[in-house]
Design a protein that fits this description.
The protein folds into 3 domains: about 210 residues, Rossmann fold (3-Layer(aba) Sandwich); about 40 residues, no CATH class; about 110 residues, OmpA-like domain (60s Ribosomal Protein L30, Chain: A, 2-Layer Sandwich). It starts with a helix and ends with a strand. The protein has about 450 residues and is an alpha/beta fold. Helices cover about 30% and strands about 15% of the residues. The strands form 4 sheets. A 6-stranded mixed beta sheet has the order 6-5-2-7-8-9, sandwiched between helices. The chain has a 4-stranded mixed beta sheet with strand order 11-14-12-13. Helix 2 packs antiparallel against helix 3 and helix 4 packs parallel to helix 5. The longest helix has 21 residues. The N terminus is likely disordered.
Amino acid sequence: MAKSYLKVLFIMMISTLLINCGGKQVKTTEPLIKPYELNVDQYEPKVGNFIVILDASSSMSNKYLGFSKFQVAKDFLNAMNQTLPDLKFNGALRTFGPSSSGSKKSPVPFYEPTEYSSAGFDAALKAVKQPGGISPLAKAISTASNDLKSTQGQIAVIIVSDGVDMHNAPAVAAEKMQSQFGDRLCIYTVLVGDSYEGEKLMERIARKTTCGFSVRADGLKTGNDMASFVKKVFLTELMDSDGDGVHDNLDRCPDTPKGVKVDAQGCPIDSDGDGVYDYLDKCPNTPAGVKVDTMGCPLDSDGDGVANNLDQCPDTPMGATVDARGCWTYAAVVLFDINSAEVKSVAYPMLQEAVLIMKKNPDLKVEVDGHTDSTGTAAYNKTLSVKRAKAIKDHFVSRGIDTNRLTTKGFGFTNPAASNETKEGRAKNRRVELTPVK
């Protein structure tokens, strides 16, 4: 990564301050301010625009903590640049006090307002060579206001200076800037040096905006210190309130229970696409297009235990015995012997179920459908099936069911419920089925 390369280069440049003195070299030292690599995926920009105003006046050439104050200021900005993730900002860098870049005017634009890049800002910072001249910070603030006049969104202004020999004019300029941009603007000041008057001035400037604050450069020694500064000024941490790995700004299902697997939008997985998430789905392999209940199971409108998509007899009365097709039938017992229409006594307990259902539902009318196995001719079985239907009807009437509630039909062997290739299958086909009549 470009930032990792710049980080190594930065440490090498700062820690290797070699000065020829009688053929001897000074020992290398650790950088005063260290960068920190923030995870770009965890943040979004808090501001749309920022501008750095760097003090390059003559007082910045004075020593502080073993370095020139100007070098400390550049170390700070180097570390800030390397810590700031590659997110979308518009950035700018201006200095005040003539510099060796050749310009005698102040303030000097080294990084015109443009889309921020770490490499671009680094190159601009390297171009600022030596401090010198007076300290027109107030003019730099006014010029920065002009730079920012057409911007949209939040603005961060970072002023890095020793605050020396400036009186109160910069604070007045900062107040005017605040009046121009209102709550969109936050001013942050970074004091380099130990001037009491300079520190108080920098604090006054920062206080012109309610969101601004002032820090000392020597108070940001560790990478964590710098990371904290960068986050406060530039970044909003992306939250993941439900802990599902998808940040709130992208999470379409922000209240997912802990531990539930989610998709890229933060919503629980719905493997069978029935609209019920897997962690709630009691029937996780529902065929596509089948309507389901709140537990993800296919609907069973008549409550017979056979889902609507499989139920060939969807209006079965509650409590009726049904087969795999959802039809009201008593194929579980042998109702009739071969070539017989006489109801076997072993079937009476099951048929009593139908009697009770009809008595509980006095408006229910039923069609009694007779069926046979495939033994014999079609004509013979047609007649036999009608006789079987009538036998069941007579059984119901004998037990108190009004004859007007019952009709009969015979289907012969045309609608088998089981295979006629086996003895067991043929026995199941010698049956009646009951169909509610609307």
